Amino acid sequence: TTAHCNLGGVLLTMGDYEGALAAHRRAIEIDPDEVSHHLRLGFVLEDHLGRHDEALAAYRRALELDSTNAVAQDNVGVSLRNRGDFDEALHAFRRAIELDREYARAHHHLGFELQRRGDWAGAAAAYESAIELGFEEAVLSYRGLGTVRSRLGDLEGALAAHERVVELDPDSAAAHASLGNALLAAGDPAAAHEAARRAVALDPEGFAGITAAGVVLQAMGDLDGAYEAFRRAADLNPESAIVQANLCGILVGKGDFDGAIDAGRRAVELNPLLGAGHENLGRAFLGKGDVMAAVAACQRGAELQPRNAGTQVALGDALRRAGDSDAAVAAYRQALA
């Protein structure tokens, strides 16, 4: 089976994913009880072909063969998350950590899932654990840590995390843009401008650089400049849900509610699991006066990111306009929790 595994690895590096798949399946036919064969098969299916259900089956078979395998358990969580089974994914990541508390990747994945849910403190702790345990892709953990520390109001900690991302990945336009946001929040607009300029210089005509510029301009309150940046980003990548969600939010700020609704609808069509897309769409509906549509959109956003204070405030505003004072108060209290 070694020859088949090696062949699969070579074909994978060549971009022949179907060929790699066939090689790993042949290895399983020869030795069906070897855990690593199932893990390799799952990796090709999940990471390169996006076939989540088949990958999940491969990882679960690996777990049947070795119920203590933290790598397999963590991979189960990734496949579950990627197909939208977030509660099961959260359980899988926590179970992986129970199996091996030193497995840094599982801590990072736990942090990512907790961040998606708006559990900023939990996410920060998980990212910090991944970094302390020597996660080989620590730049990803630092990036997430910077975001959640900012949400927690730890501006100094957020800035330190984003500075570390730039140290680890100095040629990333997105890293410099995130640093710009952190510097702006920390009260250093001159340094924020410099970071934004660096982001654009690294990728002046590319999606990353233009999006980075839009993020910083939006944070600075330059809605016209941000709108132009995100429009260019949308032209470069019309399938980006987050760009459409940002356009929706900007258009709400500019009072163009019809345009905002179009962008928001496009965002949630592209990614139905994007909480920010539903939240901004709800704000657009509210500005337009379609209160019940606003309530529905904000409720979906709150389901996807229940601990996100901004989403809860948007939901509270919509519920208050709908005349449901008790539910509005509950949403506002959740925002303050």
Which helices and strands occur, and which strands form pairs?
Elements: H1 2-13, H2 17-30, H3 35-48, H4 52-65, H5 70-82, H6 86-99, H7 104-117, H8 120-132, H9 138-151, H10 155-168, H11 173-185, H12 189-202, H13 207-219, H14 223-236, H15 241-254, H16 257-270, H17 275-288, H18 291-304, H19 309-321, H20 325-336
Description of the molecule:
By secondary structure, this protein is mainly alpha-helical. 80% of the residues lie in helices and 0% in strands. The longest helix is centred in the first third of the chain and has 14 residues. It is globular and about 65 Å long. The termini are far apart. The mean pLDDT is 93.
How far apart are the first and last residues' alpha carbons, in Å? 55 Å
Number-wise, the strands total 0
Number of helices: 20
* Class computed from helices, strands and strand pairing: mainly alpha
Unreliable spans are none
Q: What would you report as the Rg, rounded to the nearest angstrom?
A: 22 Å
Whole-number mean pLDDT:
93
Order of helices and strands: HHHHHHHHHHHHHHHHHHHH
Strand content: under 5%
- Large-scale geometry: globular
The biggest beta sheet, please? Answer: none
Helix percentage: over 70%
Search tags:
globular, 337 residues, mainly alpha
Summary, kept brief:
The chain has 337 residues and is mainly alpha-helical.
